[in-house]
Amino acid sequence: MVDQHTPPKWSRYKYPESLYKHGTLLIVLLFLGYSLHFLNVDIPLLLGALGGLVGVVGDRYYPPDVAYVLDRGYLAAILDTLQMSFLGGFAGVCLAIPLAWFSAWNVSPNRRVFFPIGRLGVISCRAIHETIWTILFVSVLGFGMLAGVSALTMFCVGFAGKLFADEIEAIEMGPVEAMRSAGANPFQVFLYAVVPQVRVAFTGIAIYTWDVAFRAATVVGFFGGGGMGWYLKRNVQQLENLRVAAIILSIIAMVLVAEFLSGWLRATVNRAK
Amino acid sequence: MFLTIQNPQGVASQLDLRRKRLTKMTLIWGGIILFIAWCVSGTIIQDTDWSRIGGRNGVLAGISRYFWLDLNLLPELIIPTLETFMMACVGTVLGCFFSLPVAWLGAANVTPSKTILYPLGRFLMVLSRSVHEIVWALIFVSAVGLGALPGILAIAMRSVGFISKITAEAIENIDAKPVEAIRAVGGNQFQVMYYGILPQIYPVVLATVIFEWDINIRRSAVMGLVGAGGLGLLFFRQMNSFNYGGVSMVILAILLLIVLGEVISHYLRKAVI
């Protein structure tokens, strides 16, 4: 006769822990459900959205008008986008380095004055999306690539500034202490104790910033900043869907090229250090 | 003080190396500066209509318009702010669901087919990241119409790339022993997934999702610019009615929301890891 007692029941979380886990999950789910209700989301439409997307793309966006993107004007716009992203990235990195120095807690020249300035500058550049920067700059400077470059600069300050500051905060503090005890001022400390340690990482981050800035530069023109985005806006408003499809494909292709290039450059920099 | 050089050849080779390095750096920086000059002349000098900007006074007048805050807008800000927040939450969760199959396809050790489906998964990740959220929103607005739904879908699609990439990398780096142990005691495929793989990737994935959610708040604030709801729509309307004080109010609301999101995500990530 086999023993009749039931095997011990095993569960991953014990009693009080399981209550917290499932309670949190329940609250999150309730919030999501309420959000869907609040936002007036049509649930069947949401469930059928991906199928609908395939249908719409096949119906309206196929075949893309490739001849349009091989046009001289559009190729010039691609070049403009490239130049804008490069300029914005360069100016942004140049501005981000001092801001990152101010906002790194361990080497900040003055923790009362410069630290909040640096932090606030980087955070406010980061918090506002690049398209909003573009609209603001367009309203002040007028349409054109100057506004686009300025917006990309702000975007890159926010993006690179945070990464730079994180990198500076992770350095070896020995050289910094040595320089300080020898009586160096904060600028000398930065130049001779911090820069040699972060040089390679900064180069990598700068290249990555350019890559991200190029991605942003493709839509800056949509709000009046010049480049490929301007063509996108025009054709979207004229409902030239086949041309829009071709433009989106060209954006994807250019972003892939930029990503490949930045990956290769970063690998080269890492090898050369 | 006398300095005796013990190894003159070594010093000479060191100096030679230094000279070579100097030449290389000079060439690189010269190239960068020439390229920048070309970009500046192409984008800024030739493309800008300087007379329209109107000198320093024009720019200052353009900026100062934004400083008269329109406090009457305050009650109208609450609902769009909530909408933006909810769009970001729902979009992130939906993005997680979309990224599950993509991560499954794109992780080298669990993918069903290495020759066909693995490259497909990788391609989907790159595709999601290389198309800007504004372009995604444009596509979805034309597919499902105006409202919050295209914004949610655009945010979800844009998040897929990052979340699924990190998830796939986490799956590739798991320890195989718990998986084998569960197989050895007779666990089925689902139990292997739930008790063997999930606990190992769970902290990394959750931290990534929280990070992405933080960025998604930023993104959902601009979805209204192309026809999805939230703060972007209010921004667009204030801008088009030339109510610059209202524009500043909307930007302040965005800043507040983003700072809130950053604080929440900071504590959540600490709790997870």
From TrEMBL, chain A:
Membrane topology reported for the UniProt record: Multi-pass membrane protein
Annotated InterPro entries: MetI-like, MetI-like_sf
Keyword Isomerase carried by entry: no
NAD in keyword set: no
Localization: Cell membrane
ABC transmembrane type-1 domain sequence ranges: 78-262
Record key words, sorted: Cell membrane, Membrane, Transmembrane, Transmembrane helix, Transport
Domain of life of the source: Bacteria
Chief location: membrane
Transmembrane regions: 19-37, 74-102, 132-160, 189-208, 214-232, 244-265
Coiled-coil stretches: none
Family: Belongs to the binding-protein-dependent transport system permease family.
Name this protein carries in UniProt: ABC transporter permease subunit
Species of origin: Aliiroseovarius salicola
TrEMBL record, chain B:
Localization per Swiss-Prot or TrEMBL: Cell membrane
Pfam families attached to this UniProt entry: BPD_transp_1
Domain ABC transmembrane type-1: 81-265
InterPro entries: MetI-like, MetI-like_sf, PhnE/PtxC
Keywords carried by this UniProt record: Cell membrane, Membrane, Transmembrane, Transmembrane helix, Transport
Keyword Kinase applies: no
Entry's transmembrane regions: 27-46, 85-107, 134-156, 192-211, 217-236, 248-268
Annotated Gene3D superfamilies: MetI-like
Membrane topology classification: Multi-pass membrane protein
Family per record: Belongs to the binding-protein-dependent transport system permease family.
Protein name from the UniProt record: Phosphonate ABC transporter, permease protein PhnE
